[in-house]
Design brief:
The chain is α+β, with helices and mostly antiparallel strands. The chain is built from 12 helices and 6 strands. The chain has helices spanning 14-18, 21-32, 35-51, 54-58, 63-88, 127-134, 138-149, 154-161, 165-182, 189-205, 208-214, 239-252, and strands at residues 215-224, 236-237, 256-263, 266-273, 276-286, 289-296. Helix 2 (21-32) crosses helix 3, helix 7 packs antiparallel against helix 8 (154-161) and helix 7 packs across helix 9 (165-182). The longest helix is centred in the first third of the chain and has 26 residues, at 63-88. The two termini are 19 Å apart.
Amino acid sequence: MTIQSEPEGLDPSLGVIMNERRRLINLAYRLLGSLADAEDVVQETYARWYAMSRQRQEAVESPGGWLTTVASRICLDLLGSARARRERYVGEWIPEPLPEPAEWTDGRPGITADPADRVTLDESVSMAFLVVLDSMTPAERVAFVLHDVFRYSFAEVAEIVGRTPAACRQLASSARRRIRDAQAPATPAARRAGIVRDFKQAWEAGDIDALIGLLAPGATATGDGGGLVGAEPRPVEGAERIARFFVDRASAVPGVTILECTVNGQPGLVARQEGVTVSVMAFDIAGDRITHIWAILNPDKLRPWTAR
């Protein structure tokens, strides 16, 4: 994404304003679970800033605070309409996966995305975390992300979402309970990577028994094709069903290479066919077993991965 603006000599505040861009991308992605939507929100936010007269801009005490407020309100509006959009979405909807920041592209071979468009990868953008966020009400999600992730006070959150500080505190508390209830005991990073690697090897070998041994009995695998490519319309549940599904899928789609990668800051896998990324897989692990697999196949959600 490129923001067109006036030459720096004509706008002394340009550096300050544009320095907020990465933080806004980080905020909007966590709120929406979509890099494409986050980019649109940030572009709209800057458009509104530059639509104001220079006099009105100079009257803003905190340009960064103004931009955050506007971006958050745009996100809140989008989240409010998300249910209707999801009803039109074909199949299951999964948040957009992100690679390591240094490996991002803008979809054109050999072109690296602007560092200001990169999302900082931490626990708050893991796929499991984003999926729980997606189950929240828009107000819960905005209050929680602004306060618990970006450390805004409840007074500041209240001004953004149009509720009282006490109400925002309750919203964040409710969201916190959802996160806590969904979280499994943490598995060390090296162990997580080892389990994903074992899954990859068992999958490539077509070893159903080994796959079953790596999956929790009640594991769930969800695919997101968005109606653009083939994907299971409903989650596949149960270790044996998932194992057989993955083995059958591999035999049905020849010439696919599976690579280990980092997906939203966690160990994951990417499937490539003839050099093109066709699927990105994120995992949630409890103890020594995989509890969830999210496979994103929708090409619109794979833009940062297309030239890898």
